[in-house]
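Progress report, Aim 2. The chain analyzed during this reporting quarter is listed below.
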Amino acid sequence: MRRFWFLFALFSSLPVQAQRGIAVEALEKELGESVYGSSWALVVGVNDYPAGGAFRSLSFAAKDAQSVRDLLVNDYGFPAANVTLLLNAQATKGALVDAFTDMADKAQPNDRVIFYFSGHGHTVDLPREGQRGYVVPGNTKLTREDLERPARVEQQCVPMTALRSLAKTTAARHVLFLVDACYSGLAISGKSAVDIPYHLRTIAVRLMTGIVTAGRAGEVAYEDPDVGHGYFTQKLLDGLRPVKGTVLADSMPKDKPDGIVTLKELVSYLVTAVPEASQGKQNPQEAQEGEGQFLFIPTEPTRPMVRPEPGRVGQTRVNPVDGAEMAFVPAGTFKMGSENGDADEKPVHSVSVQGFWMYAKEVTNGQYRKFLTANPQWTAERIDSKLHDGAYLKHWKEQSPVSKDESYPVAYIPWYAAKAYAEWAGGRLPTEAEWEYAARGGRQFEYGTVTGEISEQLANYSSQGN
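Predicted structure tokens for the chain:
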């Protein structure tokens, strides 16, 4: 049986925040100023609609909104005081328009603005202007018959065109609408964010207004009871959470600061991930005006980096997150590479590493189950198909002896999942040099042996000594 073992998670003295900070500092140095002056958001979620009215109540819209609000504040640097959250009865038409107006008025030229809505949407055919889309507030009194009466809908609901007009009054550099509702119109007739040429400094400073909706005209925005979110919002959260969003962060061009997610990248992810999750029932739509790009810049890791005190050779500690034993690997220098290997291994050269803490044993089935409980988006049923080769946790599905034993090493784990586990546990994966240095155990030869030779038994792979 072919196995992919997730062997080690590394815990060093360098916090994740510092690594992300370097990337942002590089962009700000190029710009000569902060990427954004401040950040503003109006986040709306409506579960409860009047009984007997035109719209049935929803289950997870308020939770959608709360989760998006928490993501913006906790992971993307939106000041809590600048984020207005309207839930259920709070989300009247008047309150929504007033809050949007206040946000548009306060935002300054270097700021960014987000409007997020989860609830019902509606589109009507106007006698004189074609279609117009609306978001439906919590205090609507519309009946089913009223849905075919444009004047009634206009009176009770919030036109997307009205919000778009208000957005034109703001000085903010970047404005983004995210709408998890049945199709309520794009309200923007521009190009796709995917078509904007990528040059980070350019897209950071140019104006833009963009909108992303949960589906096309005629499509219903569904909720997923298994995860407790709408399909669109769940994938939005998966794509933007620093740990969960590795599909974005790790597919970016190598010449751009790591960790920054552009609207272009987010859209490219959503237009694939949402249809896949909803079995083709929802197909997000988007458009934008302007040549800029809304930037999501993580400010903190989802879990603080575990930072043990400096250790000494032979010292061990226990990671409080998953109970794993960590061993201290002291700083040192070793010869890395091979004159007989592939071109990228030549020449043999000296590499120095700082001291670090590393798991003493492989991550077990039991520890990985704990990770999945805390991060259900990484279960075999929900993992994005682009993140694995189809064999993910294959041994669990087959219920092999290995899968039944909680103390056995977990197998069939792709790199993305291993990275997510390490970050959840408060660390990161080792570099190639750190891994080889630790595996040698302080010995001269690359196999960690005394002679530099390795037997077929030690090199056994797939039950074959070759």
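The two ends are 15 Å apart (CA to CA). The first strand starts at residue 10 and ends at 11. These observations will guide the mutagenesis work planned for the next reporting period.
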